[in-house]
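Possible regression after last week's pipeline update?

I re-ran a chain I had predicted before the update to compare outputs. Posting the input and the new output here so someone can diff against the archived version. Not blocking, just want to make sure nothing changed silently.
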Amino acid sequence: MQNLTANNANHEKTDVENLQPVDAMALRKAMGAFLTGVTVVTARNQQGEPYGLTVNSFNSVSLDPPLVLWSLDKRNDKLDLFRQAGGFTVNVMRADQEDLIWLFAKTETERFLNTDWYWGKSNQPVIRNTLLSLECRAWAEYPGGDHIIFVGEVVNIASSTGIPAAFYEGSLAATPLMYAATPTLGELVLLGGGHAQVDVLKQFAMHPLPGLRLTLVTQDVRTLIRVCFPDL
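New output (post-update):
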């Protein structure tokens, strides 16, 4: 305790009030190192039509009451749609739903024409066969800098199985590299996909470990192509 006190005494305090905020692009780059899942948030507009967009600014807030949140740029032209919808659905996407993720990320497109969806119990649109769908009624709305934060109370949950999609360092891929214990002694299983998995496979090919078998489990065919045909 004496050492801690001495160290604190020698520490020159910073005038926090005069610190300048970091540059916007610096924060954006830094947050790229934070792995997130990928969601499509859907809602019913004033004409009774479904709308949705791809979002990764999603998080849980509270268990009792059951609350979740997501945020939307104030400049988005569909901001009022979500403000007036009375609720929304957060659809957590699977890794093999990349086409849907990019479809709902486009600026102008018919997003629901060839999408399998239905009206949920909350009267909000729900995308079928996602990893998870959380139907919410509007709970609160808060300003958050250049974004608006939407908080919803979860009123219904639908879930299935699969590998979750992930967003990391500006790239969309299957869940990044994970290691899993297996019943077979001497076997290493790689789950997921993306650049991290490719790097490990290359290292294993150059420096194989005697007696260790490598098994690849992925839904990302492009991972295999990049490993087998690196010059393509």
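Follow-up from reviewer: compared with the archived run. Residues 175-193, 223-232 have pLDDT under 50 and may be disordered. Marking as no regression found.
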